Amino acid sequence: MNSKIKKITKDFSYTVIANLLSIIISTVLILIVPRFVNVVEYGYWQLYLFYVSYISYMSFGITDGALLRYGGQEYKVIPKKIFVSQFWLLIILNIIIYSLIIYFYSILVTDTNKELIIFLTCMGGLLIVPRSLITFILQATGRIKEYSKILIIEKVVYFILVILLLLFGMHSFLNLVFADLIGKLVSIVYSILIARELVIGKFETFRISFNETIINMKVGSKVLFANLSSMFIIGIVRFGIEYRWGVETFGKVSLTLSICNMLLLFLNGVSVVLFPTLRKMSINKLPILYNSIRSFMTIPILGLLIIIYPLREFLLIWLTEYEDSINYMIILFPMCIYESITIMLINTYLKTLRKEKAMLIINLITVLISLIITIINIFVLSNFNLAILSILLLLIFRSIVGEVYLTKVMNIKIRKDFIYELILTTIFIIANCYLDKYFGIIIYIIFYLMYLIIKRSDLKKLLTYIKFRGQ
User: What is the C-alpha separation between 138 and 372, in angstroms, rounded?
Assistant: First the structure.
């Protein structure tokens, strides 16, 4: 048992380092790049990052299926010939798909910058998708150290190149995109070197490879579409903002979302370690662990909303051209609460319990609501503030619906927590939008302290756990 705890702790530490480094790099880039790059160039760069986040899902469920089917197994026993076949199949399929995307987009779009972004996005997809098969297998088999190194290498190379470009006055969005592509190229080369058995070697027979691929696609497609639909929840609103208000406004909104996503990067890394660990646990223990993790996470995050006050003041001084986007933080920053619950708890537990279909349905319902709201807003109301607010409301809806379903499956009750979090979120937004900023701080802190008093028993357990782990 001690060896298992050691392994989990060691894996967690590697993931923490990788994600802490990602947070630091993202923070520096968020603060530095807008300072040197004009708003339009920054908008195109964010548009590339936006597109590439979607193009990476062109795995057809193969990689997600492999993660689910082989999660918890040892690396040495997995059928490597099958993965060699699937790795090269992904490359061939993606070349075909991306060629069609580039062709049709060149016909439909007149903006040469957007056309170039689509081409470079597809080039990025050719690096990301095959690499994801390797990283998912490493994650599934508990090789978290190697998995973390791949992430670190990509981020470090990308970061160094961006800083050098800015220092030499090369501020075009194209240079920033090339830096990203080089980082991805170096990381895939490294991933092939450390897991060459998954890339170089004999192919499995066609019949076995075909059957395995179909099985992986069937299993993984639910998770793939669930994750993709999850991205579309905010993505549809962002598409609408870019269509209605242009690339410049899109870039400003993206800056705010990037700041919010810094915290989510860390939480996503925790879920990477949590998934294979939960898969090995008895189903009976999962509900008990759920409550502990939830308290461990939500109490500090609700308190972290307070940092928005000094952060906003600093950003207003540092990034004077982005005053509008910095003010959006008041509405969007609470999304960290609900997205962290969704990423770290709901999605991880649903995958562990093999409830991928439920995860997909919840996301699809939220996507449909997002589409309806965005169409009405873009073509009828044309209300930018509603577009921003809808991002938070959609994430709150998705989180609550997902958690209600999950708690019913596990037969646990946390309804009061929903209410407390909604009250604090509402107070945070109203106090900061309609009151003097200093008075708003005091109001939120008072209500947060009241929340801590109500949750004092959970807080005591949390502090006891931290003290115990520190000894």
Answer: 39
For residue 112, give both structure tokens: 């040469």
| pLDDT recorded at residue 469 | 46
Q: What residue type is 208 in one-letter code?
A: I
Record the tokens describing residue 388, joined without a space: 């921003």
Structural contact between residues 36 and 240, judged by C-beta atoms closer than 8 angstroms: no
Distance (Å, whole) CA 398 – CA 405:
11
Angle at 174 between CA 91 and CA 263, to 5 degrees: 75
Predicted TM-score (pTM) of this structure: 0.81
* Helix spans in 71-205 (H): 80-108, 112-140, 144-167, 173-194
C-alpha 288: how far from chain center: 26
Length of the chain in residues, anyone?
A: 471
**Cβ of 342: how many Cβ atoms within 10 Å?**
25
Identify residue 173 by its one-letter amino acid code: F
Measured CA to CA, the distance from residue 372 to residue 374 in angstroms comes to 6
- The 10s digit of each residue's pLDDT in 38-88 is 889 999 999 999 999 888 788 888 888 888 788 778 888 888 888 889 999
What lies within 8 Å, CB to CB, of 282 at 6+ separation is: none
- 437-471 pLDDT, tens digit per residue, is 778 888 999 999 999 888 887 767 656 654 554 44
φ, ψ for residue 353 (rounded to 5)?
Answer: -85, 0
> 73-112 b/e with 16+ CB inside 10 Å = b?
eebeebebbbbbbbbebbeeebeebbeebeeebeeeeeee
Other C-beta atoms lying within 10 Å of the C-beta of residue 270: 19
3-state secondary structure of 414: coil
The angle, 0 to 180 degrees and rounded to 10, between the axes of the packed helices 112-140 and 39-55 is 40
* End-to-end Cα spacing for the chain: 18
